[in-house]
């Protein structure tokens, strides 16, 4: 392991170079080669010098981290390396893991979306993650604010497994406010990163992290995403990796729906319920016998159901509801509050209501 860590930490050693070297040598074999032999392999002189002079203090830090409970490193040659991830064009040569490494090889749905979602978007992510988790899928995401966090939380609420792919070393949590969430994830799930301990958050780390999110999964679901969202980059990586891509559509007036709508135009499957995903990935379903997919709404009385049917999935004014029901503002307000508390709709700006489910 020491040689793997040394090679990973070598300045100028990119993922593709590392993978090319592994085609002919193990890391231990590389460190036994002479300078001339390394140069003959086509490596630049600066890289050869860096290989010959490892930063042993950093490697000792990695080894100390690995000595701690539930911390692991998995190489590309290990049996526990996830087979799905091995299929992509540039799999990480080394994965750092906190939690149960075997979860990385189970069927996964990746969920991504906006860091600043609407409340209905967060609720949708939580609900989809909860249901898909109960159907036997591991929920994979990036521990970011917004949709990522809601997806992890939905899986945890279902007492299922979730994977958080980090853009930092696993001795730190980014964003810092998700420290408690990370602790909960590790209890029953796993955190994973290609970055060694001590690595801080940098902008260029997150596209690299995203290829792991999409590479690990059987299918990727985009819940809410703006037109120029990083989630769309992840979705396109998933398509390149031959993964199924799903997107939840939204109003043409909602900026957070434009990315999803664009993906659907480009061929992503339009998703209105978890059943749409399960139909595509049914060979992976391990549904809990005690759990059945919801097919109907919770029981509402006729008057409540009639009112709910008049509330659109885009802002609907109370004046419009008065006109369509003939009820007074006071009566409607009371009924709408009950529906809001039951999670069917939410109040929005300007005295409007938006249906959630």
Task: Give an overview of the whole structure.
α8 (119-134) packs parallel to α9 (147-157), α9 crosses α10 and α11 packs across α12 (230-240). It is built from 17 helices and 12 strands. It is an alpha/beta fold and 357 residues long. Strands 1-2-6-5-4-3-7-8-9 form a 9-stranded mixed beta sheet, sandwiched between helices. Strands 10-12-11 form a 3-stranded antiparallel beta sheet. It starts with a helix and ends with a strand. It has helices spanning 2-8, 15-22, 27-32, 35-40, 45-52, 56-66, 83-86, 119-134, 147-157, 179-188, 205-216, 230-240, 258-265, 274-280, 302-310, 318-325, 329-341; strands at 71-75, 94-99, 108-112, 138-141, 162-165, 190-193, 219-222, 244-247, 269-270, 316-317, 345-348, 352-355. The radius of gyration is 24 Å and the shape is elongated.
Segments where pLDDT lies below 50 for 5+ residues?
Answer: 287-298
Q: Alpha-carbon distance between the termini? A: 50 Å
Biggest pleated sheet: 9 strands, mixed
Counted by DSSP, the helix tally is 17
User: Overall mean pLDDT score?
Assistant: 90
Q: How much strand?
A: 5-15%
- Described by the principal axes of the CA atoms, the overall outline is elongated
The level of helicity is: 40-55%
Strand order of the largest sheet: 1-2-6-5-4-3-7-8-9
Q: Which radius of gyration do the C-alpha atoms yield?
A: 24 Å
Structural class category: alpha/beta
Helix and strand pattern = HHHHHHEHEEHEHEHEHEHEHEHHEHHEE
Number of strands: 12
What would you say about this model in short?
The chain has 357 residues and is an alpha/beta fold.
